[in-house]
Amino acid sequence: MGMLDWVSFENGKARFCGAKRGADDAPHEVLAVQLGGAIFYGDFRAVYEEDRTHYNVEIISFGFGSAG
After folding, report:
1. Rounded CA gap, 14 and 64, in Å?
2. Strand 27-35 to strand 12-21: parallel, antiparallel, or no bridges (unpaired)?
3. In 34-49, which positions are buried (b, 16+ CB within 10 angstroms) versus exposed (e)?
4. pTM score, whole prediction
5. What is the pLDDT of residue 66?
6. Closest Cα partner for 32 from 53, 4, 1?
7. Which residues contact 68 (CB under 8 A, 6 or more apart)?
8. Which residues, other chains included, contact 16 with Cβ-Cβ below 8 Å and sequence gap of 6+?
9. What is the C-alpha separation between 64 and 26, in angstroms, rounded?
10. Model confidence over 19-47: pLDDT tens digits?
11. Is residue 67 within 8 Å of residue 20, measured between CB atoms?
């Protein structure tokens, strides 16, 4: 399984899409979630702990109809 492959769950699937240029022309890290046949996109970022090894993923925005 590759980093950008779909991961299946009980009610849908999700994947990372990589960096995409947004409407503001800035790069955004994008994720996709498929629920009930529809695909929704969102923007996320990694927030690192003090040790710079461990991190959490924060969803910035979600629910867009396209990756851009």
Report:
1. 14
2. antiparallel
3. beeeebbbbbbeeeee
4. 0.78
5. 82
6. 4
7. 20, 21, 22, 23
8. 3, 4, 29, 30, 31, 32
9. 16
10. 888 777 888 899 999 998 899 999 999 89
11. yes
Phi/psi at 61 (nearest 5 deg)?
Answer: -150, 155
The DSSP line for 1-46 is --TTS-EE-SSEEEEEEEEEE-TTSSEEEEEEEEETTEEEEEEEEE
Average pLDDT, the chain: 89
For residue 25, the tally of other CB atoms under 10 A from its CB is 6
Q: Residue 50 corresponds to which tokens in the numbers above? A: 């003090």
Q: Taken in order 6, 44, 20, 41, is the CA torsion positive or negative? A: positive
Contacts (Cβ under 8 Å, ≥6 apart) of 44: 29, 30, 31, 57, 58, 59, 60
